[in-house]
Write a structure and sequence with these properties.
elongated, CBS-domain, 4 domains, four-stranded mixed β-sheet, single chain, 13% strand
C-alpha cells in the first residue's frame, strides 16, 4: 500500500482542524483588539472585523465552519474505507479470517483509528490552540474561511434557514452569534486575569464591585435610618446654621416632625449664601431642594442612573410600607466601587480589627458577604448586616455579652446602640486560613 492515501487522510484532518480552529477563534476573539489592528492597516484584521462586528455575518461564518467540518469528516470516512481499509484487509485475511470478515474487521479498525486521530488532531488540539490564541488563530484562518463562505454559500443559506424554521416551530426566536458576556462570565474573566498576574488584588476587587452594582440592592450601601443626620424643618435658623457649621456634610436632609417625613435637602451653600447676602431668614423652607425617593429594593446600578437623571447626590430609600429605610449618597456608591477614602471632616468608620487572642472585632453594620473572609464562613440568613444576622439568630434584641454560634463561628455581642448591634467579637472557624 502506497503513502498516497495516508497523505490524503492527513490533508482531510488538516482541513477539519482548520474549520474547528476558525470556529472557536471567531467566537473567542476580542472585537476591540481586531478593530485596533484593522485601524493599524492589517488587511486580515479588516476582513475579520466585517465578520465579528455583525451577528448575521458571524452566524454565516460559524455555519461555514460547521459545514466544512461535516464535509471533511464524511469524505475522510468514505475515502479511508475505500482505500486504506481495502489495503489492510489482506492482513486480517492472513490471520485466517474469511474475505468478508477481513474486510469488515479492516473497516472497523481503520474507522476507530481515524476517529481517534480526527478527534485529537482535528478537533481537540485546534480547539485548545484557538481558545489560547484566539487573535492569531482567527487572523490566520480568515482568508481560507472567506473562500469557504463562497464555496459553501448554497449549503449555508439552506441550513441556516432550516435551523431558523425549526426554532420558530419550537417557539424559540433565532438569534445570531454575538460576542456577549454575562456579568458572571466577566467576573470569571477578571478572576483569571488576577490569577495570571495581569491585575493587582485591589484592581480585581474594584472591578468585581463595579460588576456587582447591577445585582447589589441599594440598601447594602445606605446609611441606616437610625444614623441619618438631618435637621427639623421648624428649627430656628440660627440653630440650623450652628448645626450645619459643626456637621461634616454639605447636604442635610430636612424632616417635618420625624425622620419618616423628609421634605427636602438643605445645601449648606444655599444657607450661608442667603444668610450673608440677603435679609434675615425666618425659616429654612424656601431653601429646600427636592430629594430623590426610591424603593430600597432597587439595584445600586439603577439607583446611580436615577441619581444621574435627577442631577442629585442623595437619594432616600423607602421600605415596602413607605417608611424611611435609609439614605444613599453618591459618595456611598463610589466607596462601594473604589473602597473607603478618608475624609478630614468625617470620622473614620469602624473597621475590622484582629485581636491578640485570635478573635476579630467586626462592626455590626458590616455586610454579611464582607464578613466571610474574616471568620472563614458565610453567615447565610435573611439579614444584610452582621448585627442584623446576630439579632435574627438570637430572636430578640441582644444585650452586650450575649453569645451565639452561626456556621461554626462563635459571635459575642460587644456593643449595642439604639437596639442595634454596633460591634461583634468573632472567633473565626478557621484561624489559620485568611
Amino acid at each position: 500500500m502506497t503513502l498516497g492515501p495516508f497523505l490524503v487522510v492527513f490533508l482531510l484532518i488538516a482541513f477539519t482542524a482548520l474549520y474547528v480552529a476558525a470556529e472557536f477563534a471567531a467566537v473567542s476573539v476580542r472585537r476591540s483588539r481586531i478593530r485596533q489592528r484593522a485601524e493599524d492597516g492589517d488587511r486580515a484584521a479588516a476582513a475579520l472585523l466585517t465578520v465579528v462586528d455583525k451577528p448575521e455575518a458571524l452566524d454565516r461564518y460559524i455555519a461555514a465552519s460547521q459545514v466544512g467540518i461535516t464535509l471533511t469528516s464524511l469524505v475522510l470516512g468514505a475515502y479511508s474505507q475505500a482505500t486504506i481499509a481495502v489495503g489492510v484487509a489482506p492482513w486480517f485475511q492472513a490471520l485466517g479470517m474469511s474475505a468478508r470478515g477481513a474486510r469488515s474487521a479492516a473497516t472497523i479498525a481503520v474507522l476507530v483509528v481515524l476517529t481517534v486521530l480526527a478527534m485529537v488532531l482535528g478537533e481537540l488540539i485546534p480547539k485548545s490552540v484557538a481558545l489560547q490564541y484566539p487573535t492569531r488563530t482567527a487572523l490566520a484562518t480568515v482568508r481560507p474561511m472567506r473562500w469557504s463562505l463562497v464555496l459553501f454559500s448554497p449549503f449555508i443559506g439552506f441550513l441556516n434557514g432550516s435551523g431558523a424554521f425549526v426554532l420558530r416551530l419550537l417557539g424559540i426566536p433565532p438569534v445570531g452569534h454575538r460576542h456577549i458576556h454575562s456579568p458572571e462570565e466577566l467576573d470569571l474573566l477578571i478572576a483569571e486575569s488576577r490569577d495570571g498576574g495581569l491585575l493587582e488584588p485591589d484592581e480585581h476587587r474594584r472591578l468585581r464591585r463595579a460588576l456587582q452594582l447591577g445585582v447589589r440592592p441599594a440598601r447594602h450601601l445606605m446609611v441606616p435610618r437610625q444614623q441619618i443626620e438631618g435637621v427639623e424643618l421648624h428649627t430656628p435658623v440660627e440653630l440650623v446654621m450652628q448645626t450645619v457649621a459643626e456637621s461634616p456634610y454639605t447636604r442635610l436632609p430636612v424632616y417635618d416632625g420625624d425622620i419618616d417625613h423628609i421634605v427636602g435637602v438643605l445645601h449648606t451653600r444655599d444657607l450661608f449664601t442667603r444668610g450673608l447676602s440677603g435679609p434675615g431668614l425666618e425659616s429654612i423652607r424656601p431653601l429646600l431642594r427636592p430629594i430623590l425617593t426610591v424603593p430600597d429594593s432597587i439595584t445600586a446600578e439603577a439607583l446611580l442612573a436615577r441619581m444621574r437623571e435627577a442631577r442629585t447626590h442623595q437619594a432616600l430609600l423607602l421600605d415596602e410600607f413607605g417608611g424611611v429605610s435609609g439614605l444613599v449618597t453618591l459618595d456611598d456608591v463610589l466607596t462601594e466601587v473604589m473602597g473607603g477614602v478618608g475624609d478630614e471632616l468625617k470620622g473614620d468608620d469602624p473597621a475590622p480589627e484582629r485581636l491578640p487572642d485570635g478573635r476579630v472585632r467586626l462592626p455590626g453594620f458590616m455586610r454579611v458577604d464582607e464578613v466571610e473572609p474574616w471568620v472563614g464562613a458565610y453567615l447565610d440568613g435573611e439579614s444584610d448586616t452582621l448585627g442584623g444576622r446576630v439579632t435574627e439568630e438570637l430572636g430578640h434584641i441582644p444585650s452586650p455579652g450575649e453569645r451565639v454560634t452561626i456556621e461554626g463561628v462563635e459571635l459575642e455581642v460587644e456593643a449595642v446602640d439604639n437596639h442595634a448591634v454596633t460591634s461583634v467579637l468573632a472567633t473565626p472557624r478557621r484561624r489559620a486560613k485568611e
